[in-house]
């Protein structure tokens, strides 16, 4: 096993972590001042969302300069201090690599749009219009057409995300060389890897063919024409050969729409160009695929469905490649609101979800604030939101489309990206201790009760439970290496699985829901299984044969004989 298979990653959204200079925006010195908080939690690797100069449209994912730090986040020397502080504590730093697109303010694009014969023209994807409209019906992820007419040359450019995020042309070897060089720049500064943004969108199907018309929007997502495209593996293998193979670093690709088989190719230990990927199957469970905008919908799903999806990745990738484990990030709602209960059972359900995250096979990712058990923000006014995706939805649906604002706000409450982007609550005091100025986005209204100060002072808090789980994961190789077996796939609320490795077997019991569950007749816990960790009972205790609402338990059995008892 490699260091990145044994690691736990903590994701930082710098804008919202901690502001050290009072401008209302989190920054690098803010992060550096909290390294002991992260070290105590026990995480090994920090993934830093983009801190480069940017166009101000998509939270840093619209880059204007790949080799510098945006002034609001600090400077390159500040960044070097952060890296040194991490390395001094034995921790590592992973940077965000956003190379499917740039900002439209990037010097390459400013050049490219000047004329059709500009040397940078071919860095991007340009096409003439068709019948007075865009070249094809492809929609952008953030609404509207994925093609934007540029009046200077009367041609359209492709942008799979915001209009201000033109897609790079990966068929152009000069573009690929630029990317390899910028990667080398950061690697030579001593970073420990890359999280690769939307990396399986680099290769588009030639000709940009139309996709099937969407339900009630003119421009559907043409995923079959840009996810896992024909040249993707060629590009990523070249990237590995030219750059990554020369360093001991980790890579994780953001790859919507991949199957375990495709993931096995991408992350094969010998031939795979990446170390691990983010798959999205469990993110789709509560979406309505028949809707025009599935990701904004919320539909019920069953616990067996969740088990099927997670279990499929556990078994089909085992021994073939490597997965990452996540239940939240800066693009999705807070996990306790989405998969748990953010009301009366907020704390036990946050702990249960953490138990799941840390006891499956794969590298776990903790998104900032989840270790505090923060729920969704649910602002009552659209004026409090900042995310381009959310504001575009509101504009298209309410302002232009005349839909009921309350219904659209509810979608935003459930699925909006700003749920995860509110400032980290460090204290219950002014501005949650995040800034001495005015925060760039309002605070989560729960900050007076749910903040780092309160949580650190409470030995039973979500934070300390995360710390215990991270330790547990380190001490039990069966979690990293073992086989996974779902014991009761059909049960409507019990998620029970084994993690089996050499002479050790772990039994994980998760009661997914607000009802107590009597295990009698459902599952026998072997008499000599020892409780390692639970969110109700203490290690070493013999808890009752009834699981409390959202109760989670991790047991260990050691001898081969005992292991047989559960097979
Ligand atoms: C990824 C990022 C997201 C961003 C998008 C475009 O999905 O995680 O935040 O908006 O790519 O770069």
Description:
A hairpin with a 7-residue loop joins strand 12 (about 485) and strand 13 (about 495-500). Helix 8 runs parallel beside helix 9 (about 305-315) and helix 12 (about 390-400) packs antiparallel against helix 13. The chain is globular. With about 575 residues, the protein is of the alpha/beta class. The strands form 4 sheets. It has an 8-stranded parallel beta sheet. A 5-stranded antiparallel beta sheet has the order 12-13-14-18-16. The chain has helices at about 5, 30, 35-40, 75-90, 105-110, 175-190, 230-240, 260-265, 305-315, 335-340, 345-360, 390-400, 405-415, 450-455, 460-475, 475-480, 560-565, and strands at about 10, 45-50, 90-95, 125, 145-150, 155-160, 195, 250-255, 275-280, 325, 365, 485, 495-500, 505-510, 515-520, 530-535, 545, 550-555. The structure holds alpha-D-glucopyranose.
